[in-house]
Amino acid sequence: MSVNEPVPTPLHGYVGFDTLTKQIESKLLRRGFQFNVMVVGQSGLGKSSLINTLFASNLLSSKGRMEPSDEVRQTTSITTTSHTIVEKGVKLKLNLIDTPGYGDLINNEHCWEPIVKYIKDQYSIYLRKELTAVRERNIPDTRVHAVLFFIDPSGHSLRSIDIQVLKKLGDIANVIPVIAKSDALTLGERELFKKRIRASLQSNGIRVYPFDHGDQDDEDRELNSLVQSLLPFAVVTAEKTVEVDGRPVRVRQVGSGLINVENKSHCEFLQLRDFMLRTNLHDLIETTGSMFYESFRSKQLLALKESSAKQQAQQHAQHQQAQYASATAPSAQAA
Ligand SMILES: Nc1nc2c(ncn2[C@@H]2O[C@H](COP(=O)(O)OP(=O)(O)O)[C@@H](O)[C@H]2O)c(=O)[nH]1
Ligand SMILES: [Mg+2]
């Protein structure tokens, strides 16, 4: 045994450090958790409805709830709403970032710019706070932990604008693609569409969440490959709750039938929710900090270092020039 290796020593009485995990838990519970989700996709694809169905609350207003006389709402700027939801004592502070207007126009050439800017701005804000001399103990986290990307249920393939945007977003955040309003497709069409989308993501080198990274064990990787083979989640959102056998069931009326959105054979809403909230919520938050923010941070700091080195070299050259000029000036020569 090397000198540095600690020797397992038996305890002769109860010390109490087994409460460490409880101490951490109660501190975390008091503080709560921050989770920031962005939704990206054309108007009317059910972004607001999916957020409301995911968190089983009425968090974002959906067009479906507006009066028929209301004119079509098309916000073009990014809007953020904050909510706190509590489940069995666990407090989740939610920031919901809506990007209405994405891809709605005929010319969508630059429609992603505000979205990419928003994501990078949050990294930048966090970095500035982190670099101040007197740092806050808990820096408020507005970094986007998950981007739900809504694909039109056309049944054909991804639009070229979507490919471009997915590429850009996949490099800077955790992107989870979903097929919106998948009740528009038959099960066969849905499978074919999903297959085509996966092929398109792969051939375009688009990285979507989940992906393998160094911090994972075999179990994580197994879950990743299972979810990767399921992407994108074909979702249907709920519009009402009905009672079936005395139990509330969240459904959507389609034609004369009802779709139970929590039935795995009807759609993949449940798979998405379980994956996003029950198994990978912590990993989404963690990878945003340890991978995407870290990469932004190192690029920024490197650029800062380079520009200050350049500035120093410039100052040095100016200083030398000034010295040479004063040494060769007529007054200096005369003296
Ligand atoms: N058929 C169908 N309609 C949906 C679904 N999700 C939402 N909708 C409807 O689509 C309309 C627009 O939904 P909304 O959530 O406001 O879309 P957003 O503009 O993307 O936020 C509303 O009338 C919803 O009821 C779905 O899964 N299937
Ligand atoms: Mg909306």
UniProtKB/TrEMBL annotation:
Pfam families attached to this UniProt entry: Septin
Family note: Belongs to the TRAFAC class TrmE-Era-EngA-EngB-Septin-like GTPase superfamily. Septin GTPase family.
All residue ranges annotated as the Septin-type G domain in the record: 31-307
Region entry Disordered, spans: 307-335
Biological process, per Gene Ontology: cell division; septin ring assembly; sporulation
GO function term, MF aspect, one: GTP binding
Protein name: Cell division control protein
InterPro entries for this protein: G_SEPTIN_dom, P-loop_NTPase, Septin
CDD domains reported for this sequence: CDC_Septin (cd01850)
GO CC terms in record: cleavage apparatus septin structure
Keyword match Cell cycle: yes
Highest taxon, organism lineage: Eukaryota
Higher taxonomy: Eukaryota, Fungi, Dikarya, Basidiomycota, Ustilaginomycotina
Key words of the record: Cell cycle, Cell division, GTP-binding, Nucleotide-binding
Origin species: Malassezia brasiliensis
UniProt biased composition (Low complexity): 309-335
